[in-house]
Amino acid sequence: MKIKSEPTLLHGERPIENAPSIELGNGGLCIPQHYLLYQHTRLSVEKIVLDIDYNDRYLIFVCEDKGGIYIQIGIVGYDNYISLKSQKDLKVVYGRKWRVESQLPTSEIIQTVFLALKKAREHEARELFRFTHDKTFTTPFNNHHDLPLISQNADLVQLSEEKTGFESLKSQLESIHYDSAKLHLKTIKKLANEKWLIDIKIEPDANGQLPEINDMAISFLLDELSTNELYYQLMGEFLSLSDRHVDENFHYKGFARFSRKNSIIALAELSSILRKKSQDEEHHAFAQAYEAANYETDKSRVPKLYYGLLSDKIKLNIARFGQLEGILPD
């Protein structure tokens, strides 16, 4: 006779009063996350992060200040604005702070780390896309451009209409390096739908920091044959490769939750089981506790409106939608 294991709760979790257990397809028991209450601390978030693995170059910090708990990513690598040849040692750079509310479900904390890693990597990838211009290099896709200044001088960055061909695109690619890798245009083919199919071979540098471009060839479509369209699409392809690397290599307790090796059909079936309304949910005492818990969670997330032009703008925008359900900001 198989003995069913009792549901396991993590630090910072407790069930809503009279919360039911759900039996899984493998005979195990669990209490779904929507039947739990959360009161996370820095220590409980640290315990979660200890079970996360991605890449040794990406440090996951759990910190706390007057604003509460936050996640921060540190990246060990080279300075992206100095040539590799002139750098002897690696350095650590730090990304933005990702706030973690104490009542956030454990799964959402894990996803916050996942997204923080993706955005830290995106920031890095944008800096590693380099143009050679006027005998020096520049990084036009980086996140450090002075946006207020550019918005006041938008005429300086307007696109002039231009078309090009194979030899011109091939020449333009020679002025680009991505993570010090060289890019070689292999083929261009016009399709029946008027789009262009582009094939590019990536020749990685021995000191490159991004493993996803090793021995890689990429193919993509352009809406029009122009260098500007090529640059934007290339950056999009590199960001997609970066995101996919995190998808496949981010593990929580050894499980790659976001990997495409997981069956979407099986995930849908599991979600259906966990979300299926149980007889216990019809129980008056639990139903009341469940509804009250959901309300308190929703209320804790409602932003506060302060006196001023922004509040007036938000209120006017909300009013355009007529009668709305949920808790409105006040």
Describe what is shown at a glance.
The chain is an alpha+beta fold and 330 residues long. It has helices spanning 42-50, 106-127, 147-152, 166-173, 227-249, 264-275, 279-282, 284-300, 309-319, and strands at 13-15, 22-23, 29-30, 36-38, 52-53, 58-65, 68-77, 91-100, 129-133, 136-138, 176-178, 181-190, 196-203, 217-222, 251-252.
Topology (elements, then pairings):
Elements: E1 13-15, E2 22-23, E3 29-30, E4 36-38, H1 42-50, E5 52-53, E6 58-65, E7 68-77, E8 91-100, H2 106-127, E9 129-133, E10 136-138, H3 147-152, H4 166-173, E11 176-178, E12 181-190, E13 196-203, E14 217-222, H5 227-249, E15 251-252, H6 264-275, H7 279-282, H8 284-300, H9 309-319
Antiparallel strand pairs: 1-4, 2-3, 5-15, 6-7, 7-8, 9-10, 9-11, 11-12, 12-13, 13-14
Helix pairs in contact: 2-5
Describe this structure in words.
The protein has 330 residues and is of the alpha+beta class. It has three domains: 13-127 and 250-264, no CATH class; 130-143 and 163-234, no CATH class; 283-319. The chain has nine helices and 15 strands. It has helices spanning 42-50, 106-127, 147-152, 166-173, 227-249, 264-275, 279-282, 284-300, 309-319, and strands spanning 13-15, 22-23, 29-30, 36-38, 52-53, 58-65, 68-77, 91-100, 129-133, 136-138, 176-178, 181-190, 196-203, 217-222, 251-252. It has a six-stranded antiparallel β-sheet. A three-stranded antiparallel β-sheet has the order 6-7-8. A two-stranded antiparallel sheet has the order 1-4. Helix 2 packs antiparallel against helix 5. The longest helix is centred in the C-terminal third of the chain and has 23 residues, at 227-249. The radius of gyration is 25 Å and the shape is globular. The model has no long low-confidence stretch (mean pLDDT 91).
